[in-house]
Amino acid sequence: MLSVIIITKNEEAHIAECIQSVSFADEIIVLDSGSTDETCTIARHLGARVYHTTHWPGFGKQKNKALDLASHEWVLSIDADERVPEALATEIQQVLQSPQADAYTVARLSCFAGRWIHHSGWWPDRLVRLFKRDKGRFKDVTVHESVIVQGVTQDLAGHLLHYPYDSLESLINKTNQYSSAAAQQLYGKGKKIGLIGIASKASWTFVRIYIIRRGFLDGKEGFVLAGVAAAGSFFRYSKLWLLNRKTRWKPAPPNSK
Q1: Is residue 79 within 8 Å of 108, Cβ to Cβ?
Q2: Could you report how far apart the first and last alpha carbons of the chain are, in Å?
């Protein structure tokens, strides 16, 4: 009745606990995009069906590839750094006995630097994760993919546990990677921005996260998250600006006299 789909790359630190948390599913599918660690070995050992792809098409297309590998009526999509706690697992099994909708959203409770984040725009971070295979499809986007549902959607009461970053360095690295992908996506849509726009976007991001979304209630960690989010906005739009200028990073030698 239920297929779980997970896309991976070098997730040996997370994949075991992730798979163990969804052991109630009828099948677990891992679509790996070139791991060089023990991710695939661990996943196979725990009973997952492991598939490989060498081409990275972006998050939306990759998750649709994983979706196409699912064989059961219902699909639960989770990431390797997420866990399904016992309460949510029980709720999912109960819901699937007599479903009242075509898809269900699930909230995510994420942690950062040893603290569960309840503000800063991180909670409840509700996303469609459980859906009928023939009623849902991921948006064809490079980052920030979501499920488009053809039918009725309801909310689950339980939540996922999310362990997105092992260090501040990993947050900064992911912010840099996501900003590049987002800039390319905006550039592909013909978007442009100037220097004042870049500064405004970054400043507004900090205000939105720290003040409007009450990141200050998440303590010092909330301040850091707001600062990194602002930096991510600055990176994204600076990269877009440079793409539109078609910047040559190696200029011609200066004229010598």
Answers
A1: no
A2: 77
Q: What's the CATH class of domain 2-162?
A: alpha beta
Yes or no: say if 225 and 117 are a contact pair by the CB < 8 Å rule: yes
Report the phi/psi class of residue 180: left, alpha or beta, with left for phi > 0 and alpha for psi in -120 to 50.
alpha
- Give the contacts of 126 (CB within 8 A, at least 6 positions apart): 105, 106, 107, 108, 155
Token pair listed for 175 = 């912010």
Q: How many C-beta neighbours within 10 Å does residue 248 have?
A: 7
Q: What one-character DSSP code corresponds to residue 254?
A: P
Q: pLDDT digit of tens for each residue in the chain (257 aa)? A: 999 999 999 999 999 999 999 999 999 999 999 999 999 999 999 999 999 998 899 999 999 999 999 999 999 999 999 999 999 999 999 999 999 999 999 999 999 999 999 999 999 999 999 999 999 999 998 778 999 999 999 999 999 999 999 999 999 999 999 999 999 999 999 999 999 999 999 999 999 999 999 999 999 999 999 999 999 999 999 999 999 998 888 888 887 55
Burial (Cβ within 10 Å: 0-12, 13-18, ≥19) of residue 216: middle
Radius of gyration in angstroms for the set of CA atoms belonging to the chain, rounded to a whole number: 20
Question: Is the peptide bond preceding residue 251 cis, with omega within 30 degrees of 0?
Answer: no
State the Cα–Cα distance between residues 102 and 89, nearest whole angstrom.
Answer: 18
Beta-bridged to residue 148, according to DSSP, are: 137
Q: Where are the domains of the chain?
A: 2-162, 168-245
Alpha helix segments (H runs only) across 46-149? 59-69, 86-97
CA 11 to chain centre: 14
Coarse DSSP helix, strand, coil percentages of the chain, rounded to the nearest 5 percent:
40, 25, 35
